[in-house]
Write a structure and sequence with these properties.
It is a single chain. With 186 residues, the protein is an all-alpha fold. Helix content is 76%, strand content 0%. The protein has nine helices and no strands. Helix 2 crosses helix 4 and helix 3 crosses helix 4. The longest helix has 24 residues. The radius of gyration is 18 Å and the shape is elongated. The relative contact order is 0.11.
């Protein structure tokens, strides 16, 4: 179904359109929220809140951006608000990034020590990400965890593409410095 048709049907309170919206975007929204809260139950709750907000405010959607961009923006805002309300740091679910950075070979036999080392490395990475400014964290999780392109991130964050590129470069540099400092001090 075309996005314009889906929006029109949503605005007419068509139940099948709501089902289609959830079916199409549910996993993407849950994964986006999970990238911020690092807890699947909280991510599912946040995704539900996102869809509830969409259902309540679909008539005010101005179609200046894509529907998916609007959904991601709501998901990011809900996730950041959740983190602020809990007053704990932003722990990003970057397990796929973490594993690829470690170049873990599946042929290696896991040992209790290896498992502990991996857990410690994940905690160090998450702690380093936690220290990033909010806008850098947002750009980083949308890029590395959600796999959005810079143009899409710019739309979600309401920034220029060059501003997103700068945020990503700064976040990567800060993470490199933080991780280098940690591992040198070991």
């Amino acid at each position: 179904m075309k996005e314009e048709d889906l929006i029109k049907l949503l605005q007419l309170d068509d139940n099948s359109a709501y089902d289609e919206l959830v079916k199409t975007y549910q996993d993407k929204i849950i994964n986006t929220c999970y990238g911020f809260v690092h807890n699947i139950e909280e991510a599912e709750d946040l995704a539900q809140e996102v869809f509830i907000q969409v259902f309540k405010s679909i008539n005010s959607f101005r179609e200046e951006a894509k529907l998916s961009t609007w959904l991601y923006r709501i998901a990011v805002n809900k996730s950041l608000n959740k983190l602020r309300s809990k007053r704990f740091g932003l722990l990003l679910a970057l397990d796929s990034l973490f594993e690829s950075d470690l170049h873990i070979n599946s042929d290696i036999i896991d040992s209790p020590f290896k498992s502990l080392e991996d857990k410690e490395r994940a905690e160090v990475l998450h702690a380093s990400i936690d220290k990033l400014p909010e806008n850098q964290k947002t750009a980083f999780v949308l890029s590395k965890y959600r796999g959005l392109k810079n143009k899409q991130i710019a739309e979600v964050m309401k920034l220029s593409i060059s501003a997103v590129e700068a945020l990503l470069n700064r976040s990567k540099k800060k993470l490199q410095e933080s991780l280098l400092f940690y591992y040198r001090s070991q």
